[in-house]
Design a protein that fits this description.
The chain has 145 residues and is of the alpha+beta class. It is 45% helix and 25% strand. The protein has a single domain (2-138), classed as Alpha-Beta Plaits (2-Layer Sandwich). The chain has helices at residues 2-47, 77-95; strands at 54-58, 62-68, 106-115, 120-131, 137-138. Strand 2, helix 2 (77-95) and strand 3 (106-115) form a beta-alpha-beta unit.
Length: 145
Amino acid sequence: MLRQSLFVGWMAFVLATAAPFGAPHAQLAQSQERSLNAVKSAVLAATGYDGEAVELTATEVQFVVTIVNSKLIGLSAAERENEANHIVATIAHSIADEPEFNGIQAIHVDYVKRDVVAATRKRSTASIFAKTLRATFSTTLPDGY
């Protein structure tokens, strides 16, 4: 009986002390969702794509931008890389003053061809831009990174 009471008391203490940490995380997630919409709007304005062609997700450390059925898929990788640089610059500018994105260490840009009828998806190009020590995003990693 004493053992059960101690266990229940300990669990109550753990849950009571952990509860305050859950609320800021939930608020951060809501804030990040609002900011993601703003970032997506900036990417759409910078690229001219429609909302269905750009998928944007974020974790605590990474943005993933998926460009679906882009006109650039049939062109050279250099042209896609040029646009990816433009997209990354737009995102970096959009999140620079947003505290919920302070932990972002990489921006990943994918160009995919999606066939809705056949339900297939083929990635054409993937570009990863890592955060440098100067807090900019670069496709080339510094030595020892």
